[in-house]
Design a protein that fits this description.
Blueprint: E1 4-5, H1 11-18, H2 41-55, H3 62-69, H4 73-76, H5 83-95, H6 111-128, E2 135-136, H7 144-158, H8 164-195, H9 199-205, H10 208-213, H11 220-227, H12 235-256
Parallel strand pairs: 1-2
Helix pairs in contact: 1-5, 2-3, 2-5, 5-7, 6-7, 6-8, 7-8, 8-12
Length: about 260
């Protein structure tokens, strides 16, 4: 899967577009005569997301979005300057879909329950938009969607009474684990849909590996776990179990810092 990177557009242009709905209200201006435009930036972003959901990220090109909206490509450039800005707008809008409580809104009581809510919402988001798994957000779209999630995780971790540095580091560790795992899960689901073959069926086709090529003497631990039925019932069950195990152990480790001196 080809990887694209967010954050590649002009900083000033991208920030203005990302935060277009969060600017202070401007004094009303006299309405100009003429036809009211039938297209706006929100519709452009919606169309890009819909194309990516249905046909993959490659379909959400500037020409592809323009065609879906029934306008010329050059017309689209009057709303969004380039494919880099369009990608950031799409990603941040999808990030904002997560139903995470804002400051002052009701939220789960325990900090683990708050993290579990982030986990559930993030996995669901990647399931709805599997193309997110092909986007690296090392340089993220610093829009309202991204910052809302960051604020939520920091506030969830802040109740532990850690130092500010530890609070930030804990939130980053949680983000890294959940987002990366959710991306892999989405990529896994997408591969099954594209190939029409489950991962269990793929492994079954390669059963001869164990019958013909596998050397138990060179892989004694693998053999012992197999004989003890330690590999579970299937690839999906194993993935779900390992995800939950990893997240719980990560939260255990962060929570243990409560008893330590920063």
């Amino acid at each position: 899967m080809a990887v694209r990177h967010s954050g590649g557009g002009s900083a000033d242009r991208t920030l203005a577009l990302l935060w277009r709905n969060h600017k202070p209200a401007q004094p009303s201006q006299q309405t100009k005569l003429g036809r009211r435009p039938t297209l706006d930036l929100d519709k452009v972003v919606d169309a890009g997301i819909a194309l990516a959901d249905e046909q993959g990220l490659a379909a959400a090109s500037m020409s592809g979005v323009a065609k879906a909206l029934g306008v010329g490509t050059m017309t689209l450039y009057t709303y969004v300057p380039s494919k880099e800005e369009l990608l950031d707008l799409m990603v941040d809008q999808v990030l904002a879909e997560r139903d995470l409580p804002a400051p002052g809104e009701p939220r789960p009581t325990g900090w683990r329950d708050q993290i579990n809510l982030y986990s559930e919402q993030t996995r669901a988001m990647f399931h709805r938009h599997p193309w997110l798994a092909s986007i690296s957000t090392i340089r993220p779209p610093v829009g309202p969607g991204m910052l809302a999630a960051r604020e939520y995780l920091l506030s969830a971790c802040a109740v532990l009474g850690l130092s500010p540095r530890q609070t930030n580091t804990a939130a980053l560790a949680i983000t890294t684990y959940i987002d990366s795992a959710a991306g892999l899960e989405a990529e896994s689901d997408q591969l099954e849909r594209q190939t029409g073959q489950s991962h269990d069926a793929w492994w079954t086709e390669r059963w001869d590996l164990w019958e013909t090529y596998f050397d138990q003497d060179r892989h004694p631990t693998m053999t012992a776990i197999w004989n003890a039925k330690g590999y579970g019932d299937g690839t999906r069950e194993a993935a779900d179990e390992s995800y939950r195990f990893g997240l719980d152990r990560l939260l255990d480790g962060i929570e243990s810092l409560r008893t330590r001196t920063p």
